[in-house]
Structure formats: C-alpha cells, structure tokens
Specification:
The complex is a heterodimer. By secondary structure, chain A is α/β, with parallel strands linked by helices. Chain A is about 50% helix and about 10% strand. Strand 1 of chain A pairs antiparallel with strand 14 of chain B, so a sheet runs across the interface.
Chain lengths: ~400, ~425
C-alpha cells in the first residue's frame, strides 16, 4: 500500500483557510442563532486576532456545538471545530458552575444515581423538581433526563467473566457512561453479537468517562486526568493483551481517538487505530467472510431510519452501521439526510440553548415523522434522547436491532 | 469495501459521472474532501465562449471543430466535434433529470449578467437568473435593482453603471425587513445562505412581495441578489405570482445559494440511484498491480480500503488540491500521474494578472479515453474528468463547466463500454 501523509503547515492550521465561506453554510448554529458569529469568524478568522491579542476572544464562542460539521464541509482541511474549542479552553473567563459540574460529571452522578435509581428517576421527572432545576440551575424544564438503571453494566459484566473468558478470541469494551449507568441492555446486546461472532468481551482495567462533557463544560484539567487513566487502560489492553478496544458510542470513540490529541494534547498515536466502533469491527469481520451471523426467521419486519450523529459524520463511519442494518433480513432501510439533531450532549439541556437546540433539530424531526419508519437508529446516545424527546419514534442502537434479529 | 466504481471528488464532474454510472446500475461511491466549487457557482454553466485565438463564440456547436484545430490537446478534442452536441445534451439531461432546472442550448450561447454588470456568453443558466439573448443589453428597458440593507456581498452600483451603458434605465432600492435585523447585528454572518433561510419562510416571502409591489413602480423587472430559496425552489416563483412582476436574480459573492441547491439536488439524485456519498474524507493511499489501481485507502477508513473495477479522478484543480504546485513542479498528489506543464517555473505565469495565464491549462495528462498517464503510459482503470484535466483555459475560453460535465459524460460512457 502506498500512503501519503496529509500536509499541515502548523498544528493549529488556521492559515490553510482560504476564506471560501463554505463552513458558514453548514453550521447548524449560525443558521438559527444570530448571536453565534459562525465557524469562519469564530475559528480561523478569530484565531488570527486572538494570536495577536487574547482580548479579542469572544464569549459567544460558547454557542458552538462542537459538531464538527464545519470541518466535514471544509475543502481545505482546516480543523475549524478544534480551533474554536481550543480557544474556548484557553481564553474563556467564564468559570463553570454547579449546573456544568452536574451535567459534566456523568461518572460521579451516574454512580450515585444508579444506587437509588427508582427514587432519582421519579424525582427528576416530577414537575416541581423540573421547575426548581429550571429556575435555580438553569436546566430547561422541557428536558427529560435519561433514566438511570438499577445496577450498572460493569456489575453485570463481573458476573459474566468466566463465560466470556471461555471464548478463544477476545475484545475489550469501552462501554461509556450511558451503557454503564443508563442503558446496560445496549451493552448486553453488544456482548450477545460479539459472542455470536465467536468473541468474548472484557472490560478495561479501569474506565473513566471519556470526558467529552467535561471538555465542553470547561473542566479541562479533570478531562485530562480521566483521559490519562483511559489511555493507560487502553494501552494495557492493546499493547500487552493484543486486544482491540471497541465502543458502541460514536462520541466516546471520537473523543478517545481525536479529541484526546487535538484538544487535550495527549498523544495516542500508538493505540488510536486500535480503538474503534463495534459496528466497524463487525463490518470488517463479516466482509472477510470468516464468520457469519444467523438471523431468526420470525423477526418482525422493521422499517429503520438511520440518523447520522455529528461525530459519526466526522468519523465518516455511518456506512458501517447502515451496511449492518441493511444486512438484517427483517429490516427495511428508510433514507434520512445527515443533519444535526441539536442536542450536542449537554448543550441542549441548558436553558439558554433550548430554543436553538430545538430549532436546529426541527427539520430532522419533521423528516423522521414523514419517513414512515418504525424506529430510528443511531450510534449516539444523546441524539437518541433528543429524538425521543422531540418525535413520536423510539430510537435504538444498530447493535440492539442486530442483536434482536439474531437466532 | 467493494464497489464497481470509486469516484474521487464530489463536485460537478464527479457527481455527473457518478449519477450516470449509478443510474446504469453500477455500485458507486463518491469520496469528497469537503464541499465543492459548486458553492461558488455563478448560476451558469459555460460550454465555449471564445476560441484560443481570442475570437468570441456564438454557437459552440458550430465552432468546436475550429477550437480542436487550434488546440489539439483540448479535452473537447477527445470528445470529438461530431459527438460534441450529443455529449453536451447528455450532460444537460443529467442535470435536468436530477431536478436542476436549467435551460440553454449548445447550438447558441446566451448571455448571463455578471455581478459586475457585464454580459458574458454561457451555455446553461439556472432558472430565475437574469439572462439575455444578445450581448448588446437586456430585453428590459427599465429595471429596479434591489438589495437588503447590510448585505455586503452584492454591489448594486457596478450593475447599475453597466446596465445604463447598455441602455437600460436603472434604479437602486435598498430594503429592510424585521426578520433580517437579527442577522444584521452579526455582520460576518450576513451572508447569502443565512438570508436565504429567512426568505424560505412564508411570512418573509409575503413581506418581500409587498416591498416589491410598493417599490417596483413602472419598471419592467425587479432584479435581486441570488439569496432566495436554499431549501425550496419556488421562492422566486412565489414572488412573481404575488406581485405580478417579472423578478430575476443576479449572482452574489460566495456562497452561491443556487449553487448549493444544485449540489444538494445532484447529491440526492446520486444517492437515490443507489450511490454512496462520503463527505469530508480524503484519499491517502492506494494499491496498484500491473498498471491497475486495485484499491484506495482514505483517512477516515484507514485499513478498510475501497476496491473497485474502475477509479475516477475528479479532484479538480489547484483550488481543491487536485493539483499542487511545489517549488519545482506542478504535481498530481494522489497517484503521482503525469501533469502537462511548462518546463520551468518562470513560464508558469504572465506578469499581467489579467493576461492568459499558462498555469490555468496545466493538468493531468490523459490518453484518448481520458485515462491518466504515468511515465507516458495509461493506467488501465484510472480515468480523469473535470477541472484537473490539461489542455484548456477555463477563463479565457469560457469552457470550465462544459469540460467538467462533458468529460464526466465521456468517462462514464467509457466505463460502461468496458
């Protein structure tokens, strides 16, 4: 194989911008929120000024969703989204408050909440509680928090250790906070599919939240600390145990692979290629012809609209999920254009972003309702919450649909 | 990943080629490193505006033989004078079938109104744009040129000055709408695409109609910047219907709203035909065996390559990095195929910026079937179409879009014939 390397004149490649304005067309925020200066001004144009004088930093950069759709659209390979996020981390004078702490510390909040899941779930769903959260911490009252599960995925996995170790071939699983605290059934679906392919699943030695919410809420030091723990565990798995590290969340995967080096300055080049989405690993395995999946004959017909999450679009990997779904005999795919749903993790939960968030997602919600699908499928948990909050459809991960169709 | 054809580059040429292949039943993928030059579209597609000698062209169909005589290495020479009209018609039909509303004919150029107010020969123009059958002037004798207050990507005075010279009475009208106030506060985002989103709303169309009715007076037509209709096609029709006036648009500075609409329509048609469009990915490597490309690898997909029977290089010219100028030479960075160019750097350009620039005609060398040459020999299954081709000057000859589309048609035909 002959490979070229991508040439970049500097790490912060704002000088590659030729001012073509294409990014401004595809920014979901600039399209609906006039307070946001747009990716070109916030990114490469503003960077030139900020390098000269940091006072040119504009707090309106907080409106950036970090969806990276500007980077996907850029014909000149400028890392516009990274430039904006780095500027926020470097220059923002606004210190994160209680709300940011609660939203960003998915690990801490999750481990406490799962201990008393029924109480927590019932309490945060109460109208008076929502009103208090809205008024005091500015979390929008129209939002519904994802339910916490009783018991974590890690707890369930510990009971599976022996059964999983029996498989000759093994993978490590970065489950992420959502699978661990909110949706262990997705983790179980992943394990079921991997077992059907002849692979046992192990946990990493120690897993922390990938840190995406910490980064976007300004807790950069804590994000770096957690990233170092994760990279340590990933290195043990990849280098010592020769295991690929798989994940089900597109955002966790994107953060581990690209945000660690680009935003946190942590070199992961030795393990980056070994961290990937499960759908990609499974696609590669199935196309090699080494293994086959057997589908049950009685699975009900399902019309599935696949929604490409922003970080999935940036990874470029939605084809793997779509191919896997299309492979299931009982599934009929319904096309859906790739566009932002507006939630962007914790962004849409904040009171001041609610209107922007829903305005961004509105065309997608309309398309989903019109599509005639039975369910929506996506690789991102926060897109799932947003689509379930804003449409009449249920949202499932591709692996949940796949696991359910297996014999 | 296994495809019949892999097309590298998702602009006008790559899309036309991909659409024709996908419709013929080929399993195709387009890999595009970012959005394309259609985002800077003038609203027109040129076929042939002038010969290399400088003589202007009224009928591309009649004059193409002369062009080929003067410039035997021109991409049109590989299409041939006899097949020229038929190929142009097929290219036009590809756009029309995808829902891109254009009109024009290879037998006779018409003229588009440039943002500088001049009239330029062209082949196809998107519906709604100001156009004229002759170079002498517009058919309208009295027009109003309207612009939204604070929109800086449109210079009414240039247009007014030039139109007056050509005998059209011309008046400028600047208008404001409450809905535009919000984006006007943020001058960097007061751009055509954002304005177009506002005018997609029924209420704003109604308000703009009222303004037009009030301001149009005794004019024959109302001319507006092309900032109408990004997610819908009928905004201009609505304005005409509500006001009972002739309304038409003139190109703005980028981004080009009608160009974006064209890109979206072509991509959707390609995907409807079963094609896979991968945006924001860059081809970074390939496997080659016995003069054939077997597989390409991209930044996003790493070890999972794209294998195919045929590969199409539609990566464009310097702007989109399909060609790169190094200190020593102009290169094609992906496959390192031959690039036709002047022997030394000193001959790349003329000192006079507006002179015919030699570098404009640099490009990938191909054989008669548009297959890329390396060391003078064709690679068996690597075809080239679009702006990256050598032997023509899109600016002085007014043939850029024509070369992109006609070479795409021919490449798809050659692939289908194999």
């Amino acid at each position: 194989m002959k490979m070229n390397t991508i040439k970049e004149t500097s790490q912060n490649n704002f000088e590659q911008c030729i001012k073509c304005t294409v990014c401004t067309v595809y920014c979901p925020v600039a399209a609906v929120n006039p307070l946001y200066p747009g990716p070109k001004q916030s990114g490469p144009d503003g960077e030139r000024l900020r390098l000269k004088r940091p006072e040119f930093y504009d707090e309106a950069l907080k409106y950036c969703l970090n969806c990276k759709r500007c980077e996907v659209a850029c014909p000149s390979n400028v890392r516009i989204g990274d430039i904006i996020q780095l500027a926020r981390l470097k220059h923002s004078k606004k210190s994160p408050g209680l709300r940011e702490f609660t939203l960003a510390n998915t690990d801490l909040v999750g481990s406490v909440a799962t201990l008393a899941a029924p109480i927590v779930n019932a309490t945060v769903a109460l109208k008076p509680m929502k009103a208090i959260m809205d008024a005091v911490v500015k979390i929008d009252h129209r939002r519904t928090f994802p339910k916490y599960s009783q018991g974590t995925f890690e707890g369930w996995m510990r009971k599976q250790r022996e059964a999983q170790a029996a498989f000759e071939r093994q993978v490590a699983f970065f489950h992420g906070c959502y699978v661990n605290y909110n949706n262990p059934p997705l983790g179980k679906a992943f394990v079921k599919v991997m077992n059907a392919l002849g692979y046992g699943v192990q946990l990493l030695d120690k897993e922390k939240c990938c840190g995406v919410a910490l980064i976007s809420n300004g807790f950069v030091k804590q994000a770096r600390r957690q990233a170092k723990v994760n990279l340590g565990s990933i290195r043990t798995a990849v280098i010592e145990r020769k295991l690929p590290v798989l994940a089900t969340s597109s955002t966790c995967t994107f953060t581990l692979r690209d945000e660690y080096p680009h935003l946190l300055g942590l070199d992961n080049a030795d393990v980056r290629d070994s961290v990937e989405l499960a759908v990609r690993f499974i696609y590669r395995l199935l196309s090699s012809g080494e293994v086959q999946l057997r589908f049950r004959k009685d699975a009900p017909k399902l019309r599935v609209a696949y929604h490409t999450a922003c970080h999935m679009e940036k990874l470029g990997w939605s084809c793997y999920s779509k191919e896997l779904l299309a492979m299931i005999p009982s599934v009929e795919m319904v096309p859906l254009d790739s566009q932002c749903c507006g939630i962007a993790g914790t962004y849409g939960f904040k009171k001041e972003n609610y209107a922007t968030s829903q305005a961004i997602g509105e065309p997608l919600f309309r398309k989903i309702e019109e599509s005639g699908c039975d369910v929506v499928s996506t690789d991102c948990e926060t897109c799932k919450w947003q689509i379930e909050m804003s449409t009449s459809k249920r949202v499932l991960h591709p692996l949940e649909i796949l696991a359910d169709a297996l014999e | 990943m296994r495809y019949d054809s892999v097309i590298i580059g998702g602009g006008l040429s790559g899309l036309v080629c991909g659409l024709r292949l996908a419709k013929a039943g080929k399993r195709c993928v387009i890999i595009s490193a970012g959005q394309s030059a259609l985002h800077f579209s003038s609203g027109s597609f040129d076929l042939l505006g002038a010969l290399p000698s400088g003589e202007s062209v009224g009928s591309p169909a009649e004059r193409v033989a002369q062009l080929i005589e003067q410039e035997p290495s021109h991409p049109y020479a590989k299409i041939g004078a006899e097949a020229f009209v038929e190929t142009a018609e097929a290219a036009k039909q590809t756009l029309v079938d995808a829902g891109v509303r254009v009109s024009g004919d290879a037998a006779q150029n018409h003229y588009r109104l440039t943002p500088m107010g001049t009239l330029k020969a062209t082949w196809l123009t998107l519906d709604g744009y100001v156009r004229s059958a002759t170079e002498e002037g517009l058919e309208w004798k009295n027009v109003v040129v309207m612009n939204a207050e604070g929109f800086l990507d449109f210079y009414t005075q240039f247009i007014v000055d030039e139109l007056r010279k050509k005998g059209t009475t011309c008046r400028v009208c600047s208008f404001s709408l409450a809905a535009l106030d919000a984006i006007r506060n943020n001058p960097t985002e007061m751009r055509s695409a954002n304005i177009a989103r506002i005018f997609d709303g029924e209420e704003c169309i109604a308000q703009l109609s009222e303004i037009i009715s009030r301001e149009a007076g005794d004019s024959d037509a109302v001319l507006l910047p092309a900032f109408l209709g990004i997610n819908r096609y009928d905004v201009l029709d609505e304005l005409k219907r509500r006001t009972g006036r002739e309304c038409a648009v003139i190109a703005t500075l980028p981004p080009s709203v009608p160009g974006i609409r064209t890109q979206i329509a072509l991509r959707r048609a390609f995907e409807r035909a079963g094609g896979v469009y991968m945006l924001g990915d860059t081809v970074a490597g390939y496997d080659e065996k016995d003069g054939r490309i077997e597989r390409v690898y991209t930044v996003n997909h790493g070890d999972i390559g794209f294998s195919a029977d045929e590969f199409v290089l539609a990566t464009g010219s310097f702007f989109s990095r399909g060609l790169e100028a190094t200190r020593e030479a102009v290169i094609e960075p992906l496959f390192g195929v031959d690039v036709e160019q002047a022997a030394s750097r000193g001959e790349w350009f003329e000192r006079d910026l507006f002179a015919k620039q030699p570098f404009e005609s640099f490009g990938v060398a191909t054989d008669g079937e548009f297959r890329a040459l390396r060391g003078g020999k064709p690679l068996q299954n690597l075809y080239v179409c679009g702006a990256g081709l050598s032997g023509y000057n899109p600016l002085t000859e007014g043939c850029g879009a024509g070369v992109s589309m006609l070479s795409a048609v021919r490449v798809s035909d050659n692939i289908l014939k194999r």
